[in-house]
Amino acid sequence: MSSDYTIDELMATFISRQMHDDELVIVGANQPIPRAGVMQAYLLRCPNLKVPMYFYMTDMAREKQLQLYPLFADGRYRRWAEGYFTFEMQLESARKADVCFIGGIQVDQYGNTNLIGIKGKEGNFKLRGPGSAGTPTTSSYIKRYYILMGSHNPRVFVKRCDYVSAVGWHNGGADARRALGLPGGGPKYVISPFGIMDFEEETKKMRLKAVYPGVDPDQVVRNTGFELIMHEQVEVVSPPNEDELRVLRGRVDPQGILRK
Amino acid sequence: MERKSVVTTVQEAAAKIENGMTVAIGGFISSNIPMVLIREMIRNKTKNLTIVAIPAGLEIDLLLAAGCVGKLIVPYVGAEAIAPISPIFRQTVEKGQVEVMEVDSGIVLAGLKAGVAGLPFMPWRGGVGTSLPELNPTLKVFNDPINGEPLLAVPAIVPDVAFLHAAYADKYGNVAHYGTTFMDKTMAGAAETTVVQVEQIIPHEFVMGKPNSVTIPNFYVDRIVKAPYGSHPYASEGFYSADIEHLQEYLHAVKSDDPDGVENYLNKYVTNLSDHEDYLETIGIRKLLSLAEF
Description:
The complex is a heterodimer. Chain A is about 25% helix and about 20% strand. Chain A contains 7 helices and 15 strands. In chain A, a hairpin with a 3-residue loop joins strand 12 (about 185-190) and strand 13 (about 195-200). In chain A, helix 1 (about 5-20) packs across helix 2 (about 30-45). Helix content of chain B is about 30%, strand content about 20%. Chain B is built from 11 helices and 12 strands. In chain B, strands 1, 2, 3, 4, 5, 9, 10, 11 and 12 form a 9-stranded mixed β-sheet that branches. Chain B has a 3-stranded antiparallel β-sheet with strand order 6-8-7, covered by helices on one side. Chain A: It holds the Pfam family CoA_trans. Chain A: Belongs to the 3-oxoacid CoA-transferase subunit B family.
């Protein structure tokens, strides 16, 4: 165990532990933490993980050192490529993928996310977001996804999103997605800088599952803009162990992007 | 009779764009963006365009700042960690100065595929249950006649022109990307006219006997424009990486206290320059050569 790690490294390691061998994992643009976590899983435990980087299928095991390039569409990912595909293929075959990661400028109590914007007066935007990207399509089909939030406060964790770009559990209830005809498994966890939330089985309301070392569950509740349900036993996420940190720093992120 | 070359100049290709047209822009966020054609459209002061793109970047900012755009059909406008939301896009939309047809990348694909096939619409699932149909009334929710599930009818997108950037083409319009092809082929198929700017025009002999190297067949391609370093400040697959310093210079100009920041950028890098050669001289050979992929 090490106490010398950053929150970004802890989040990447938590993500890494969620991966199962043989899965197809889609990492999108502007997602350095999931990208690092998936690479860590691949190098440590899951040699058959299918990991596209940009639009290339990769064989990264042969590389002594990988890199997290600042932009998604970077041709240098082609160094590790064993095949390529097109954006059409990714969108048309979203049902083939097992895991992806979705962000938002808001997330609500049912795991709906918003990349569109915050409502202002008279139908205008108070804040215009970047746009939905591919999340409405991917979230409809993918077997499970993780919602990744860069901050945790009541302005971001809201009771109801101003706009919904990716449907989580819609208006709640275990049948919510089936009623909309969405074949995908929906959001599994919400990963924030404080800890991990899942969704209560019946209502599909967000529930605090685990916190990071040193985070008080009450702090998470206070920083959530709706009534956050608590697990009977809120766990503590175990810090990255030596192997996990060695792979993360030595091979995945030698430039220390997650340590900044 | 001799076979015709489809090679033309940037000026001639961009002059085909008239006010109010729909223009699809190929590539993906920060790679293979047809910047030479875009800068020429800006110099031509083209107005009221509808711009179609899959995740797009700061080129949308430039088109907005230059007053070229009436409507956007674009699912994302940003530069990831460098600029999570493009600043001019954000300001312009918040002020209600441009119409946004709210879409996701899959919906753009569905609309273009309907365009390719000559269908009025294409069914698509992504977007069901979201705010997209409420914000974009052209998307109609319907129950599919097979299983009765709710789906979106996405109306066909038929761009007047598609502008693409690729690695190579011969003079007969056989286009070869290096690496991935983004959504370029579908855009080319949907558009009435497709113009591809390329890093190199290669001898026809290079594709003869290697037809698999052609990524867009020439029945989808109308004009080829020679444009070395033509995606700068973005990357071009097989040639160079994005010029992140330049992107930061742009963002610095826009976000500075100077309200004319974006004007100054446009003057320096677009409007005060006469052509692409002028642009490359302004950027400088040392900077360009430093952007190698490897």
